[in-house]
Amino acid sequence: MRFGVPRRADPVIDVTPMIDVVFQLLLFFMVTTTFISSPGIEVDLPKSSSDVVLGDDDDIDIWVTVEGAVYADDAPVSTEELVALFRRKAKADPNTMVVIKADEGVSHGRVVGVMDMARAEGLSRLAIATEAGDARKDEP
Question: Which one of 28, 65, 85, 98 is most buried, counting C-beta atoms within 10 A?
């Protein structure tokens, strides 16, 4: 009776643990990533040397572009719509803050006009958004 030499099985690399680790790393990075909500309106904010951070979900964010367009909540608005928005927000909560994010090239008068509209409808908490930086370096 002839007995053959037992065949050795080909070595197999089990990749299941490696796939588990990769998915756990992927899940970890997805959970720990901070998502920054950036508005869809491109505005170059002026520089400021102060670094006071304001912001609340109840704030009214108003963007004024260098072309003269005004946006509220990422949608273009006319002067009448802006006044109606201010009136509605002032009726709901007169302490609502209006944050004006005006492009660096927007005229001062345009920004003051938006501020006056808000104040006329009863919103007195106004802020102008700027970027952190040394404003004195940009001065002539």
Answer: 98
Amino acid at position 71, single letter: Y
Within a domain: residue 94? yes
What's the token pair of residue 61?
């964010």
Task: Look at 113 and 42; give whichever has higher pLDDT.
Answer: 113
Here the CATH number for the domain that contains residue 57 is: 3.30.420.270
Give, as one character, the DSSP assignment of residue 68.
S
Give the number of other Cβ atoms within 10 Å of residue 44's Cβ: 13
Placement of tokens 């002026």 in the chain? 46
Share of the chain above pLDDT 70, in %: 76
- How far apart are alpha carbons 127 and 115 in whole angstroms? 9
Q: pLDDT tens across 57-105, in order?
A: 678 888 888 888 899 877 899 999 999 999 999 999 888 889 888 888 8
Token pair recorded at residue 119: 């104040």
- Distance between CA 4 and CA 120 in Å, rounded? 100
On whether residue 120 sits in a domain, the answer given is yes
